[in-house]
Amino acid sequence: MTEVSAPSASQVGLVERVREGWFNGKTGELAPGVRIRSSHTVVDVGCGDGGLIGFCAGQSAEVIFIDRDSRRLAATEERIRQSPARAYRAIASDCDPIPLEDAIADLVICTEVLEHVPDPAAFMRELIRVTRPGGRLLVTVPDARSEQLVAATAPASYFQEPNHIRIFTAAELRNLVQAAGLEIESQQALGCFWSLYLTLSWLTTDPAADSGIDNPHPIPDHWTRLWHEVQAHPLGDRVRESLNELLPRTQAIVARKPLAGSARAYTASAMS
Amino acid sequence: MSEGNKPLASAIGMRDWKAEGWFNGRTGEITRGVRVGPEHTVIDVGCGDGGFVGFVASQGAEVIYIDQDPARLAATAARMQVSPARAHRGILSDCNPIPLASASGDLVICTEVLEHVPDPVRFLAEVVRVAKPGAQLLVSVPDARSEHFYSATAPVECFQEPNHIRTFSAEAFRQLLLDAGLEIESHQFTGCFWSVFWPLSWMTCERGTGLPVNNPHPIIQHWIQLWQLVQDHPDGHKIRDALNQLLPKTQFIVARKAGCIS
After folding, report:
1. How many structural domains compose chain B?
2. Tens digits of residue pLDDT in A212-222
3. Residue A236 touches chain B, beta carbons under 8 Å
4. Distance from CA of A119 to the nearest CA of B (A)
5. What is the ipTM of this complex?
6. A227: Cβ–Cβ under 8 A, 6 or more apart, which residues?
């Protein structure tokens, strides 16, 4: 069993994400280059446990968060209720279609969702529909290399409905976003801690377990402690940045919906 | 030098190799498909510490081992004296050219050398020259991905002469051997334990004390203990095999020189 002072995987993973430039309370950036202002309306499609929309609420934005899992939605709502959010709305929906009017959001967040949906291109069109012209989208999916590693130990159900039914390489994600008529602002590979952690955790967890996060088995625990020390080391950033180029857990893309009137915006709306 | 039951990195690394089918004393295979027996003459070009020649000698073969480092050559010679090798000969040379007659070896080994040399094409041509027609060659270089990770924390000298002055992608390595007229029998990726070990060890070692293979730092100890537990786990090989595809330390090609075995 772990000592009282032992780091948990979720804590180490969060510290890693902050080092990668996310959840920056000082600058108000949710992710590098994505500043949240109180004037913004932010929609999170598939909000899960609400970590990202919670940050936006903390910046006093108006937040709308949607998930098909009503239990998670309720937990997120509880969290947002105590936040300084300018306004909030929780919606239970499978987002096919998204039950919101067009062009409502300054920012649409959609993290770790596209790998679950049967038609990612159609889903992207829905995300773009609710984004205002000139607004932005923050989209993440698991990286193909990490999925290849996790596949070594994860149960078969990991790659079946309702879980991950599709794997995107970085180029495929880029193509999906560009084909939908968006302008890519940045693409980031991140979360290498999780690539090994999840693989080690699936090796040593009950296959019926929910996610394998915060597994007390010594194998993932050694990795958590190791990475905790790497984070504390003066050269730790270099190790993380290098491993993120080779074995990232997640790839994130920030893209902009063109302003109305531009040729690309016309193409995008013609497709939807 | 192991204290108590603390595992050494080198022992952990060797256990992976054996599990992957390397150094199989029962079949006489160095790696799958490369069998060595007493009838063979084996040449190791750049033998280093002699891990490969040690196995070859244990199979009773004739061994010719070459290195430009006199200390390493002497250490290997001492091991050869007490080995069952049918015959053995150590040669001090930079292998430019290799001081051996053409078509001398039934098997030519050249591991972790091509990344050091100024002209890999010319060097490989020499390696091929000393192999008999129809002979096998076992050639390795570091994988480009682990070299990238390694460079995050290793001293710059590691990527300057006389160390690694070139990195080979899997495709470039393959093409190099094809262009030398060799037929490729297998291309395998191995050593993922080391791919993670080295960047962490360079990060945490005392500088100026050489290659940090025995590093007591807790980060390294976590990695060693973790990997030992993975090795002990009945499904641990699945992680090793997957990580070897994604982040291997070394890429090995088994190739064959055209012609009939005499």
Report:
1. 1
2. 678 889 999 99
3. yes
4. 28
5. 0.92
6. A12, A16, A193, A197
